[in-house]
Design goal:
By secondary structure, this protein is an alpha/beta fold. The protein has two domains: 7-111, Response regulator (Rossmann fold, 3-Layer(aba) Sandwich), CATH 3.40.50; 214-370, Histidine kinase-like ATPase, C-terminal domain (Heat Shock Protein 90), CATH 3.30.565. It has helices at residues 16-28, 39-49, 65-73, 92-101, 113-176, 181-210, 221-236, 258-274, 337-347, and strands at 8-12, 32-36, 53-57, 83-87, 105-108, 217-220, 242-246, 253-256, 287-294, 301-308, 351-356, 362-369. A five-stranded parallel beta sheet has the order 2-1-3-4-5, sandwiched between helices. A five-stranded mixed beta sheet has the order 7-9-10-12-11, with helices on one face. Strand 9 (287-294) and strand 10 (301-308) form a beta hairpin. It is elongated and about 105 Å long. The protein starts with 7 loop residues before the first strand and ends with a strand. GO terms for molecular function: kinase activity. It comes from Thalassobacterium sedimentorum. Pfam families: HATPase_c, Response_reg. Residues 155-370 form the Histidine kinase domain.
């Protein structure tokens, strides 16, 4: 084992004989040992060498082991270093005092060297597992980011290729049939529609990149709901009648970005509207919006539920509803609305999820900090 791989152990005791015994035992097991004779020396050595584990005597003059431990645990740079107390107190109260201060274990005097070595090894292994877990979490986080970027990139390429194919196809029709005004007019209209969808994809990507810098202001929830419904009807060129049920006080406010909020709620309303078959008359597309305060878990949150009685969540997308470009629609250039909506609302410490409606259809629930 190389020097760099040796576990670094700090032994802190005001009795030199105890330090000598522990130092000899640990060094024979291939460990690098630092020594300190009081709490202040301990803090200095920890700052300079960052040991893997500390054996700390409780009973020391000036700064005792309890205070030393508390100082180490209050410092973010040293709080994760495991501390084993050396104590002369065999009572339950004495042991609890050390554990409550932040120690992971204790040994009692007179010191049993073999038992101490076993406890040191156990804590070193636990510490190694702790660091391995942190590294694994970091790798998993990187993997998720890479997978997300890959899925979005693949989805963008697929959708833009399809849309470009539409544009190229209609351009060919125009070239070959330029003497037919009706056909040219129809082709230009469909090309314009495809180009608009491509622009929308680029705009949605800009939303992902920029939504961390949203300017938030205090806004009344009732006004936000009204403006969101109005914007939804204008943007989607529909005449939806949304039945709003609110248990909120009239002046209930949230800190939000009005445009972003309207886009997110509008997307949920659009999903509810499109959940009905295409030939369903507007007056039969039942959309309900319930506004309330959620107090079940943690701080109180605004809760908005968009409820429809449409065709429900398709089985093939039930588990992947919030992944990029997941859609049941046959037309190209769709499928990032819910992905962006959830990403944005989570950056504002809210949440967005969709579940089956027991009465048929779906329930989309949005929560937002008050």
């Amino acid at each position: 084992m190389s020097k760099k791989q040796q576990p670094k152990i700090l032994v802190v005791d005001d009795q030199p004989i105890n330090i000598k015994l522990l130092q000899r035992k640990l060094e024979r097991q291939g460990m690098e040992v630092y020594v300190a004779y009081n709490g202040r020396e301990c803090l200095q050595i920890v700052e300079a060498n960052q040991p893997d584990l500390i054996l700390l005597d409780i009973m020391m003059p000036e700064m005792d082991g309890i205070e030393t431990c508390q100082r180490l645990k209050s410092n973010p740079k040293t709080e994760t270093i495991p501390i084993i107390f050396i104590t002369a107190k065999a009572s339950k109260e004495g042991k609890l005092e050390g554990l409550e201060a932040g120690a992971v274990d204790y040994i009692t005097k007179p010191i049993d060297l073999d038992e101490t070595l076993a406890r040191v090894r156990t804590q070193l292994r636990l510490q190694e597992m702790f660091h391995e877990n942190l590294q694994l979490q970091e790798r998993l986080g990187d993997a998720r980011k890479a997978a997300s970027v890959g899925a979005i990139t693949q989805g963008i390429a697929h959708n833009l290729n399809n849309l470009l194919g539409v544009v190229v196809g209609y351009l060919d029709l125009i070239k070959n049939g330029h003497d037919s005004p009706d056909m040219v007019k129809r082709s230009v209209g469909l090309m314009d529609h495809a180009i608009t969808r491509m622009v929308n994809i680029i705009r949605q990507l800009g939303t992902i990149a920029n939504n961390e810098r949203l300017e938030l202001t205090a806004l009344t929830v009732a006004d936000l709901i009204d403006s969101s419904i109005e914007r939804f009807n204008d943007d989607y060129e529909v005449h939806a009648e949304v039945n709003v049920e609110s248990s909120l006080e009239e002046d209930t406010q949230i800190s939000a970005n009005a445009e972003t909020f309207e886009i997110i709620l509008g997307k949920l309303l659009a999903n509810a509207w499109e959940s009905y078959p295409k030939d369903t008359p507007p007056q039969e597309r039942n959309i309900q919006l319930k506004a309330s305060i959620q107090r079940e878990r943690g701080p109180a949150m605004l809760q908005l539920q968009v409820i429809d009685q449409g065709e429900g969540i398709a089985p093939q997308v039930r588990e992947t509803l919030f992944e990029p470009f997941i859609t049941t629609k046959t037309s190209v250039g769709r499928g990032m609305g819910l992905t962006i909506a959830r990403h944005t609302i989570r950056n504002l410490d809210g949440e967005l999820y969709v579940k089956e409606n027991p009465d048929g259809g779906a329930i989309a629930t949005l929560t937002h900090p008050l």
